[in-house]
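Much of what follows relies on a compact textual record of a protein's fold. The record below shows the convention in full:
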Amino acid sequence: MKVLLDTHTLLWWLSADPALPPIAAQVIADPDTVVAVSAASAWEIAIKKAIGRLDAPDDLPEVLRANNFDDLPITVAHALAAGALPAHHADPFDRMLIAQARLESLTLITTRGRFSDYEVPLLPLG
């Protein structure tokens, strides 16, 4: 399975937060799962850290490597796809994750209900 973590899922995994649904933790921990983390999530984390709204690792690239997570850069195709999505959801970071999951054939792991408004593969979280 190839998955893309949304920002909340990533942060919950990194902090071993009990808010992470058990099925999500099981899929992420599976050595056969390819786990991708979008540059959009790193960008969102950096912005929220800078304004004091989030506590996250200072060494995010190293932490991602230590977890065997793959970086997913943002391409022009991703940006155009995110911009072309229906306006069900206004958050630009979430829209980018949706576009990337669709274009890269990744299953998105999220607890955000609004994601189901889009044609994007989602991990059923129970």
Residues 6 and 110 are 6 Å apart (CA to CA). The radius of gyration is 14 Å. Helices lie at 7-14, 22-29, 39-50, 60-66, 76-84, 92-104.
